[in-house]
Amino acid sequence: MRWLAVLLLAGCGSSPQGQSDWERQNLKEREWTEDLAAPPAYPRTGALLEFFVSARSEFRFFIDGASISPGADGVVRYVLVARSPAGVENVSYEGIRCATGEYRRYAVGRADASWSGRPGAWRPIEGGGLQPWHRVLHREYFCPQSAPIRDAAEGVRALREPR
Asked: What pTM was estimated for this model as a whole?
């Protein structure tokens, strides 16, 4: 009987090596902390790299190559410029969290070439949603196979030499 009690007590201990894949992933998610990054310099027209989003979109989309910043937290940050057919530009400082397929807007550009606003919530990147540029940036340029690019040069190269 005593050996049964010892055997039961030995089985009660758990070690990190005994965790399932689900437990390890969820524990990792709870431990994740985001790097705090101030917005970069406002984009210059000469540093903008155009990327294709969809034939259905009348807007043209650009990334400020000087702003691409893959962080140690797995987030690739960048400045996005969306230009309407009339030439009006929407400028935003954003980030994509590659592992989870989410994006976040940190700041919005103002007419005086400064930043305003507070960071928004993390939002899932939709498959075909109203903002397809996040999906394109995630899949094609900044998060190949859901892993962040290694450095800014890799992001610039991807934008200049689309697949």
From this structure: 0.79
